[in-house]
Amino acid sequence: MLENMPILSLLIILPLLGALVLMAMARFSRNSTGEARAQLDKNATGVALLISVGVFILSLLMVFQFDSTTADFQFVERVEWLGGGIEYHLGVDGISVLFVLLTAFLTPLCILASGKSIEKNMLDYMVTFLIMEAIMIGVFCALDLILFYLFFEAVLIPMFILIGVWGGKERVYASYKFFLYTLLGSVLMLAAVLWIYFYGQSELGVATTDIVRLQTLDIPAKAQTWLWLAFFASFAVKMPMWPVHTWLPDAHVQAPTAGSVILAGILLKMGGYGFLRFSLPMFPDASVKFTPLIFALSVIAIIYTSLVAYRQKDIKKLIAYSSVAHMGFVTMGIFAVNAQGIQGGIFQMLSHGLISGALFFCVGVIYDRMHTREIAFYGGLVKRMPIYAFFLMLFTMANVGLPGTSGFVGEILTMVGVYKVNPWVAAGAALGMILSAVYALYLYRAVIFGEPTNEKLADIEDMNRTEIMVLAPLAIFVIILGVYPSLITDVTAVSVDNLIANFNAAIGQGS
Questions:
Q1: Measuring CA to CA, how many Å separate 201 from each of 198, 205, 214?
Q2: Torsion angle in degrees (nearest 10) through CA of 370, 385, 476, 94
Q3: Is there a contact between 53 and 130 (Cβ–Cβ < 8 Å)?
Q4: Distance of CA 53 to CAs 12, 129, 269, 306, 484, Å?
Q5: What is the pLDDT along the chain (511 residues), one digit of tens a residue?
Q6: CA distance 158 to 180
Q7: How far is Cα 497 from Cα 507, in angstroms, rounded to an integer?
Q8: Going along 107-217, which residue ranges are E strands?
Q9: Is the separation of the CB atoms in 389 and 382 below 8 Å?
């Protein structure tokens, strides 16, 4: 049904078209006042939601048509673009297709949740969000090295605007810190991209930026070392890995709720995706060389940031540090380079996208009511907000890795994969799992249980219908994937096996 349809281009273009419609509406809004302007803002949410739901439905059709029995890229689109072998080249395989679906799934939930929490410039906000959705989908679809780099860097702009315009009191500082950290890391990657381009031209006899063709290059081991480090600088900051993680808590605390959801749910995953798409297949010898470094940084991230999370007084900061710890499992699993490790890393990224997104939505629920994220302010919410207490309990347990939730599957797969390579690394990660239970249960007890001693909480209302509509789909998928993880692993299996086979073959040639 979708064979002759440029579905990937449609997934990118539809949000951009929606943004253009909203820009036209914004021109009318600036010339309007009072009720007319309020109505336009309300319509902006409806238009953005309609567009994002359409993108989600289209992504579902793509996944249903996806053939998981082959490692080949599917729905491929290829058009000459800038000349010199640089093409508009899109496609998805078992590793990338589910990240497109996750992006399309979270975006309408973010738009729905933003309807009442954003108090100014709603039209501009929705324009920014739709543009960001298009760029994020482009990152996971790009099969041209230059095109990937452009998407990878372009996503910084709408997120920078989102934090800087609609963030908290320290939004300017947080937005610049986010932008500079991620941009500086990517400058090195740009230099590496140019080196690969010219080296590929000399080796292949033709200028090309085709990622699939460039992955076949036999790059000298010494050059691999420098190229790996250049790509690592960008991907490590984006995830972020310890010790280049310090921009993340500030960005999360200052970002609006939906911005935090997208930041944790999608943007952090671009680093892990980059390791899978570039570091392992293009620089296999260097990946082996630096695996001990990755393991060390991952274990430090898991343990250290879990301890830091426990000491936080701001709920968002606690969850932000928790995200750094969980990304440690991802990098650890990916560089184990076996089926369980990489499958676990991919599963963990997808699962964390759901769980962390849900936790930030939960923070937004009480922040919209009380306008504070201080843990000490709350307590005894189970007596005032029983529905909220249920959802927060579910996502807290998933974040801890309780069996029966998606959080357990990703962590146990990465642990098994790493144990086969280095049991001591797995033991360090296991300690991190224990610490995650400590800070997560501490947060839940402090906010939900106890007596409601704060008089300001006396009239706090439980979740409304819109908030339930946002969290219910996330809760359903967290449970379904925890019970039936093959919904993900069956899609990714062949592509993961192909990645591992090519990696081992390249290592064999190098030795």
A1: 5, 5, 10
A2: 20
A3: no
A4: 13, 13, 22, 36, 25
A5: 556 678 999 999 999 999 898 888 766 656 556 565 666 667 788 888 899 999 999 999 999 999 888 888 999 888 888 777 888 999 999 999 999 999 999 999 999 888 777 777 778 888 898 999 999 999 999 999 999 999 998 988 898 888 888 877 888 888 888 888 888 878 888 888 888 888 888 777 777 888 888 888 888 888 889 999 999 988 888 888 888 788 778 888 888 888 888 988 888 888 899 999 988 998 888 988 899 999 999 999 899 888 988 888 888 889 888 888 888 899 999 998 898 999 999 999 999 999 999 999 998 888 888 888 888 888 888 888 899 999 999 999 999 888 999 989 989 999 999 999 899 999 988 888 888 889 889 889 988 887 777 778 778 888 889 889 999 999 999 999 999 999 999 999 999 999 999 888 877 554 4
A6: 14
A7: 15
A8: none
A9: yes
> 110-127 in b/e burial notation, b at 16+ Cβ within 10 A?
bbbbbbeebeebbbbbbb
Tokens of 361: 């939505």
pTM for the model stands at: 0.91
Rounded to the nearest 10 degrees, the angle between the axes of helix 406-421 and helix 423-448 is: 160
Structure tokens at 82: 């800038």
CA–CA gap between residue 253 and residue 473 (Å, rounded): 25
Closest CA to 343 of 496, 484, 235: 496
With tokens 């990703």, the residue in question is 410
Beta-sheet strands, E only, within 56-185: 74-83, 86-92
DSSP-based three-state secondary structure for 378: coil
Question: In this structure, what token pair is assigned to residue 368?
Answer: 């919209």
Count of residues making up the chain: 511
236-239: long-range pairs with CB below 8 Å, 24+: 236/185, 236/271, 236/297, 237/181, 237/182, 237/184, 237/185, 237/186, 237/271, 238/182, 238/185, 238/267, 238/268, 238/270, 238/271, 238/274, 239/268, 239/271, 239/272, 239/327, 239/330, 239/331
What is the rounded distance in angstroms from the CA atom of residue 465 to the CA atom of residue 331?
Answer: 38
Per DSSP, 457 falls in state: G
Amino acid at 434: I
